[in-house]
Amino acid sequence: MKRIKKLASILLAMAMVLGMAMTVSAANGNYKLTINVVENHKYEVWQLATGDVSSDGETLSNISVGKNAKAGTTVEDITGLSALTDAALGDAALALIDIKATDPIETLTKEKPSVELAGGYYVITDSYVDGTGQQVTTISRTMVYLVKDETVTPKSSTITPDKKINEDNTGKEENEASIGDVIDYQLSGTIPDMTGYASFKYVLVDTASKGLVQGLIDTEGKFRQFKEGDTLTGGVGTKDENTDLVVPETGVKVTYVVTKVTPNSDGTTTVRIAVQNAINYKAHVNKWFYVDIKALLTEDADVVAIPNTNNVKIDFSNKPGSEYDGEPDFNGNDPKGETPIVTVETFTTSLTLLKVDGTTNQPLTGAEFKLESTNNANVGYVTGQEYVPMAEAPSGYNNGTWYKLVDGAYTTTAPTADTANKYDSVEATYALVTVDKTTYEGAQIKAQAFVDADGKVVFTGLGVGNYKLSEVTVPDGYNKLNDITFTITWSKETGFRVTNVKELDKDGIEVANSSITISVADIGENGEGVGTVISSTIPNNKGTLLPSTGGIGTTIFYVVGGILVIGAGILLITKKRMK
After folding, report:
1. How far apart are CA 520 and CA 348, in angstroms?
2. pTM: predicted TM-score of the whole model, two decimal places
3. How far apart are CA 152 and CA 449, in angstroms?
4. 20 to 30 A Cα–Cα from 292, which one of 122, 135, 167, 168?
5. In whole angstroms, what is the distance from residue 413 CA to residue 419 CA?
6. How far apart are CA 579 and CA 577, in angstroms?
7. Model confidence over 414-465: pLDDT tens digits?
8. Which domains does the chain have, with CATH numbers?
9. How far apart are CA 417 and CA 438, in angstroms?
10. β partners of residue 478
């Protein structure tokens, strides 16, 4: 009997020691937390509370506030979380964590997916590095009650941004345009789960390259650049897989506010467009916010191999329980996450004309060309030379004094009493200056200029369309060039191409076997035709020279005429004698 009691005492002591060992082991971090890690994600573990785990592995007792809890957090605040579940639980727990002032007790990755921790309450936040190398914070609502080994798959609600060029109600990632064109865009982003937020900030951050100016169409139907305080009306909807655009949900309107317009040092412009009262749309979780904006392609557009880019990302609230103020955009203290950047591209091209002498093939000056579209495509920018009244010449002008002839050509030869009738004015003088002209304002769809000293004129910022090239002013002593028509096409795969090149005579009839050509050169990585240069060499031939007054031309007519008269007289006399 004594041996039995002694054995029982030993067993009881062993059980007590084992129980103590379990409690001590829990306190020393012998519970394994494993994360089902997603590639490129990083999981930060925040300690909200610790305690002693019961022998049955179900209950946490002797709870104390953890290392990452906000100052002033009480045990009652923590145990009160037991009444919550899922996202609400994660939100409430995260609201008690001091993310700013403390560091996580552990960071888990693909390389290190697990850690041993003391029993307690833990909150897991999640961030990831996207394909562009940007780290993106997600909205994490995962809280772990660690009283035994646990494997956790954190639930995150990421926001997906999107931007599309809207052409004919189809969303595109690339397009072509002419300088002066207004391009339509749709900005959009998914609506996250906003549970746990009293206020939520959602800001579309739109950045355009130097050749694009973001804006809107005003009440007079004209484009103007965005100003801070502008409001736009968009909505909520679902993404159409066929058009890649958001289809509006009937009756749901969303107001967007332009909160800031920033010209950047690299020539780009960033516009922040905030959803007003985003929290009001929390019932539309997983649908899309959308708003339409416009951009004008200007003379600063990149031509050839570099596309004109326009991108968007979204700044968003990422800390439930934080006291975000009522303003639509973030202030300096607001915690926020940001999405990856989505970029769209616009291509444009140019036409370079080289005027040469048809015989010597040397550059020829004095020619003026006009390029116009026959189907309302813009021809918005031209670089060449222009004759302006001498009074308008720039300071330091030293390119000679020019006079205008009645046929539209210009000469540096001053008029005399004998030649005055060949001049448009014997008093008006002109300067020949280099110009970069924009003509896209209003309804202009054509541009013209004289060739420069090297015989060149460049029409920049051309898109798809049908065009006609005309020689407006002909160099003195040369024949006028026939009109030339051609078509410009574009695709992402081929870049710009020129087709249907025709030379037309004065009656508009196509000239057979014309020698006029327009060439296309692709410029891009590995010759992929990302950018395209269009050029043409235009020859001019001199006109037939008539003999001058008093020269052999007149004399020979008199001599031949006299001989014919004498011959006729002799023939008449001979006939009479024969009779």
Report:
1. 14
2. 0.71
3. 71
4. 135
5. 10
6. 5
7. 999 999 999 999 999 999 988 877 665 455 567 888 999 899 999 988 999 9
8. 2-157 (no CATH), 161-346 (2.60.40.740), 349-540 (2.60.40.10)
9. 40
10. 542
